[in-house]
Amino acid sequence: MSTKRVTALIAEDEPMLRAQLRARLAQAWPELVIVAEAENGEQALALQRELESDIAFLDIRMPVRSGLEVAEELAGTCHVVFVTAYDEYAVTAFEQGAVDYVLKPVTPERMAKVVERLKQRLDRPPASLSSVLAQLEARDSAGPLRWIKASLGASMRLIPVDEVQYFQAEDKYTKVVMADGEALIRKTIKELFDELDAEAFWQVHRGTIVNLRAIARVERDYRDQPLIILKQRPEKLTVSRTFAHLFKAM
To answer: Where are the domains of the chain?
Structure first.
């Protein structure tokens, strides 16, 4: 491996996930220099062309231009690591020769493996991504759940999932909590989690799923457990020990 300074760009539209990725990289590779962070694909392209970093960590799903489009544009100018919440993306990318991938939420163990592989590949030309990009772009998917059909008294309402602050198990139902009200649905937390966009919704308790975009900040309670403060709701959401690792680097 070369001894020169190694630089990287991080492209991820969610601030919390971007911070987590940066923290995991700092733990696994303290010498790596993060030269820039981008919130969308267009910004990532502009920054990479200007700074010419050695490695680009690209979220597959970003606004304006996707990580796949950015990787196609960069075409062999740097090593690429795909960041994704979807196993099918990751497995395909890995098998076709992309440098590597990390699944969200990023674990220290996975990041350590990615860093080791990157160090081994740095002195080689970046891998060709043409075949994997073609496969990923052609991927047929019904996509994640976008609407929730919920009961409000005697009426039925169609709720966009983007408006949901969090879901919480309640007896035989699941409570759908929005900024301005609540509704009930006959779906379990597990069923919901399997259908929701894993990049936007995290399970934080056996009976709770939260919309990442609804989070204002994460504090610590008297037991040093994460406590979620919402932007538009007064209640605080407890993160169980099982899911506390998701917020460890924040």
So the answer is: 7-137, 147-247
Task: Give the tens place of pLDDT for each residue, 69-91.
Answer: 899 888 889 999 988 876 666 66
- The structure's pTM equals 0.60
What number does CATH give the domain 147-247?
2.40.50.1020
pLDDT at 79: 93
CATH superfamily, domain 7-137, is: Response regulator (3.40.50.2300)
Tokens at residue 194, please? Answer: 């399997």
